Amino acid sequence: MLWSDPENKPPKELRDTQEMLRRLGILMALAMVLVMLVIGVR
């Protein structure tokens, strides 16, 4: 690898998509916990 090679950074769109998927995963996990609590209360 040469020192003049460009940095290996993903494009902005890919980073934005990964961030959105991460947030979506956290939201899904919280929603599942909430559903489990609601089912447990009944």
Description:
The chain crosses the membrane at residues 20-41. Keywords: Membrane, Transmembrane, Transmembrane helix. Pfam families: MmpB. The chain is an all-alpha fold and 42 residues long. The protein has one domain. 71% of the residues lie in helices and 0% in strands. The termini are far apart.
- SSE pattern: H
Give a quick account of the main beta sheet: strands, pairing sense, barrel closure.
none
Class from secondary-structure proportions: mainly alpha
Query: Outline, from the CA principal axes?
Result: rod-shaped
Beta-strand segment tally:
0
Radius of gyration: 19 Å
InterPro entries: MmpB-like
Pfam family, one: MmpB
Keywords: Membrane, Transmembrane, Transmembrane helix
In summary, what is this structure?
It contains one helix and no strands.
Topology overview:
Elements: H1 12-41
Features:
single chain, about 40 residues, mainly alpha, about 0% strand, rod-shaped
